[in-house]
Each structure stands twice: as structure tokens, then as C-alpha cells.
Amino acid sequence: MSKEIVEAVGVLEREKGISADRLMEALEDALLSAYKKTPGAARYARVDMEHDTGDFRVFQLTLPPDLEEQLLDEVEEEAGEAQVDPETGELVEPEAPEIGQERLAQYSDQIDEHDVTPDDFGRIAAQTAKQVILQRIREAERDMTYDEYQDRVGELITGIVQQSDSRYTLVQLRERVEALLPRSEQVHGERYEHGARVKAIISDVSNQAKGPSIVVSRRSPELISKLFELEVPEIADGLVEIQNVAREPGYRSKIAVVSHASGVDPVGACVGPRGSRVRMVVSELRGEKIDIIPFNEEPARFVAKALSPARVREVLVDDDGRQATVIVPDDQLSLAIGKEGLNARLAARLTGWRVDIRSESEFAEDEAEHGYDEEEAVSGRCAAILTNGRRCPNASLPGSRYCGLAPHQALVDQVGDELSPAAEAATGGAPEDPVEDELAPVVTDAPVEASPVDEPELVDPVEEGSAEAVDPDEPEAVDPDEPEPVDPDEPEPAEPVEPDGSALQGSVTQPPASEETS
């Protein structure tokens, strides 16, 4: 019999993963329970089992009367007084006090022991031992499951849908381990069919009486980070890092990525060849749109990128209040705000800045009506007002309210910030772009409208009155039968503008258009 016990313990250790010592302790408790079910059993007893051979002995414990009374008083104090059942309203008496084996072991020198090992256990005692052993094995499995998953909060898991109703969805992680996907952690509009595989994030693990409770989530922003880490090797290797994620589950998400290795494009790595990588993530999220934004240390440029796919004209930032005022063209205002403010809300979450989006016409009217206060003037932007009513987009010099242009510096000795037409003409017209070397918190570059998976690019806005580039290699259509009219008072047409934009300062006279060849 002892050999069979040792072999059974070895099999359980291999199959269940439960240590042999814990199984032997369960056997000792089972044998003690079985002994107390036999007729004439002593009130206090203990079981001693050899773990190597499986031999066991049962000893009766005889306590001195004063020691027994002392230990019973201690147990009663710990048990507390009777309590009222909230459901029935009846007074529930605590269970009869029982001195545990740990407490008795502390007074082993005062307790007498006698060997009372029975020759055989009865049927009821054997059944009791079986139930105790099974209970202890289940408790060990629950503790092992809890220890395994309590440190995995935030990890990505894959499970199979077992059951779904209006309250929750039951997901099987592995054999005899299930997780709950509550209604509050599900994405609106998603349906979970029986037997379907789903990926989710472990959000909470708690130990309860019926076993560990594992709660998973499909709404967590961490789900997007883990999915990209699974699909993009550069993220898994640490070459590309996801700085932040802003998500509206089921509708749209924005992620900011940065590269830690030269020559690695973070946006291109996440998109993949022909969009294969981001397409796998979108497929797992059931069609949720994803914008991949390159991270920028400069807040103004980062905010402009975060509002993609809308084009941004200027960004004015307030570092103290972490607030950004974004100026967009009139036709881009609704796109920048998004449906029900979705795009602006996601941009604010992604950047951590409060974003105020205003159209060009509205901003120009406010500037003309209210002017500029001293606080705005020292915020880093030139305070000069051009003849077109707009403010100079250049950065101001340190300790000055104006940029480095001489006519703008001359406004220090004048009343008001408005430039005269003559002074503006001396500077070559209204500046089209900020000075690159002095670009502070103001950005006049605007991202080109692109699909959610494309990297938004910054392009310079085209000012009114600037010339269009002419391709010098494109031949003009000329009618050989019709002579070209010549005006003796009209100067010769200007040379074609170079594609590099070097001749784009000021206006350029276009050559007269000719008729098409017949």
C-alpha cells in the first residue's frame, strides 16, 4: 500500500505540476480526517508520514487541562462573536473551536503522544480521505494558476470564445483556465462567435474563493502596442519605440513612434511592405483606423503631425499652460476637428497638450479686433503686423518683441506694431516662411492629407501672389501659321523658374500662353 501511495504521488506531480511535499501534506490531512471518522477516535491527534516510503503513523495527543483551556480561549477570541446573516436575519453562531496542528506543535513538550494507528479504515473514512485529497489538489491548482497569471497583467493573450451573453464573454486561455471579458471591456459593435480566437490584454487577476478570477480587455490602448510589437520586429528588438497611444475603441487610434537607430524609419517599419504589417493589426481590431505619427521633441511640430490628416498652417504654443493654438485653413477646419471632435480629442491625448483649433479667417479677425497683449508678444513670435493683416510668422529675437528683419526692429521706436507698405516692400514682401534658424514654438509647415496608415509630411504653405513653378523641359504648343503678337512697350518675358524654388521670391511674369497646335 505504501509503494502505491508513493507512485500515485509521483504521477500527480508530473501531470498536475504539484510538488510532492504538498501532496504528502494533503495525504496527512486526509488520513487525519479519516481517523477522526473512526469509532472511538481521540479528540486530538496527528499523522506522521514518511515521504520516501509512504509509511504513516497516527498519534493520540493528550493535553493538560489548563493548557487545553488556554488554547480553546485563544481560538474563541480569534473566531469572534456571533454575527447576523444579512439575507435571513438570523443569528449565526461561530463554529465549535478546534485547535490547529500548528498551535499544538508549539506546545509539543507539554503534550503526551500515544500510537493509535488503526489496522484498517472503514468505508466512510476512506471516502472522507478521498474528498480531502481531491479538495487539496484543486486548491493547489488554483494557487498555481493565480501565481502564474498575477505577474502577467498587461500581457497579450490569445483565447477561444466559449460562451457569450449580455453580461460577459467567457474566453478559454488553456485547459481548465478561463478568463472573463466583461461588457465594459468589449468594443462596441464587435461580436464574439463561439469557437473564434480573440486577442486581449490581461487587465486584472484576483484570488477568490472559487479560484482565481482573470479579467481581459479589448478596449485597452495597450492592446495596440502589443499587437504592433507582435507584428513589427523592429519594435520587439527595441529599434523602434511606441511613445504613446491614444485610442477611441472601434473608431480610430493614433500612435506616436520614434526610432532609436539611424537609418530606420519608424513609420515605414510599422506600416510594412505595402501596408502588410499595419493591415494585420487593423484586421485584428475589426477595421479600426490607425494613424501612425512620427514623434517630435518640439511640441509645435508634434501637435501639427498629430492632427493628421488635416493640414496645419501655424501652431502657437504656451509652454507654461501646455496649450497649443492651431491655425488651419478654412477648408481644413472640420477635418482637423473630426467627427464629434474625435481627431482633436485623440491629438490632445497623444501629445498631452490642450489643443485649440481655429480657422485662418477667424484667427485673423480676432487679431485685427483684439490686437496682441504683452504676454503673447513675449511668447517667442514676432509681434509685427503685416499689411495683409496677419502677424509675422518668424520667431522673435531673445529679449526683443520682433524678429531680426531691420524694418521689424525699427518698430521698437514707433507706436503700434503695423508695418507700412514701404517698410514691407523693403523686406521683399511678406515673409512666406519662418526663419529656420530661429524657429521656436511656431510652425508654419502643414502636414499633407494622407491615409491613416501613411506618414503625414510637412510642406510649406503657398502664399497668395507667389509664382508657380514652370517646367523648363516642357515645350509650348505653337501655331506655325499664326505669328505671335509683339508689344513694343512690353518687356521680354522672364526666364522659367527653376524647380528648386530659388527664383520663387517675389512675382514672376509668365510667358504668354499660345494656342494649341491645329
Question: Descriptors for this entry?
Answer:
518 residues, alpha+beta, three-stranded antiparallel sheet, 18 strands, disordered C terminus
Tell me about this structure.
By secondary structure, this protein is of the alpha+beta class. It has 16 helices and 18 strands. α2 packs antiparallel against α5.
Provide a concise account of the structure shown.
With 518 residues, this protein is an alpha+beta fold. The protein has helices at residues 2-16, 20-36, 65-79, 101-105, 123-149, 222-231, 233-237, 266-271, 276-284, 299-306, 333-337, 342-351, 360-370, 374-377, 406-409, 421-426; strands at residues 45-49, 56-62, 83-84, 91-92, 112-115, 156-164, 168-174, 177-182, 197-208, 211-217, 240-248, 252-259, 289-294, 314-318, 323-328, 354-359, 446-447, 458-459.
The biggest beta sheet is recorded as: 5 strands, antiparallel
Rg, rounded, reads 40 Å
Oligomeric form: single chain
- What percent of residues are in strands? 15-25%
Q: Give the CA-based shape.
A: elongated
Q: Which percent bin holds the helix content?
A: 25-40%
The stretches of 5 or more residues where confidence is low (pLDDT under 50) are 372-378, 431-518
Give the number of DSSP strands. 18
Mean pLDDT: 76
Q: What structural class results from the helix and strand content?
A: alpha+beta
Tally of DSSP helical segments: 16
Distance between the termini: 112 Å
Widest sheet, order of strands: 8-7-6-9-10
